[in-house]
Predict the structure.
Amino acid sequence: MKRFSFSDMNRSSGEILETALVEPVALTKYGKEKLVILTAEAYQRLAGKPQVQAFGLYDAPDDVHRELLSGLDEILAEGDADA
């Protein structure tokens, strides 16, 4: 993890933010890490938050198609049982 001081952030914020898109960046004050900048995706993984993905009918992966069809089959079977 690259380290930058708060003063560096004032002078080179663009470079630091670009670096944070590739890897986490530590911001230091008086030589001690105070903040870490990381991508939203990395944060969500650390926080245990599931990532939301959306697909169109034609670009969904095969496993998503199978899961969808399985769910539809269950719904149809429940409808037949109720009739």
Summary: The chain has a mean pLDDT of 88. The helical segments are 6-20, 40-47, 62-82.
